[in-house]
Amino acid sequence: MLEISPKGTVPVLQLPNGTVIDESLDIALWALETNDPENLLSPEKGNKAQMLALINEMDSAFKPLLDTYKYRFHSEPDIARAARDDALPFLQHLNSLLDAQDFLFGGRISLADMCILPFVRQFAFVDKEWFWAQDFTHVLAWLDMFLTSDRFATIMPKFPLWAPGDEEMAFPPVDMAS
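The structure assignment produced for this chain is given below.
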């Protein structure tokens, strides 16, 4: 991996022609431009540029606040709470986008949903009780729809907590690989 991408971060995708793609969004875009059976790049409302702008807003404004919130929650609670509170406008923006529709750009899932949902999930799980008590009716329904979906169960299967001495587990598990 370090030979093809010296920055040493994942994910990394090397194409057959030798091109290396080492940013998550760029990999998603390449994959969807190659094959997009759910039309994730063609939202029902809005367009690709608007989705990319919202994803960029999440990545540049919300994600750093999420990191501060989740990594300092136990060690520096005042700093964590400040970051959490600073992240609220983005969540309120998502809530307004989800008013009267199931997904961020209409009635069906899009690239924006797939890119933003995991980070909202991380945010929600820092302090679940606090998050689910907030007045983000539409965000809560959107997140809950994802968390209870077959898609989520497939991509985020539950595994028992590993401990030294436990049997090794293949990844992906044999029954999932077939």
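Interim note for the steering committee: Residues 1-35 form one domain. The CA atoms of residues 28 and 111 lie 8 Å apart.
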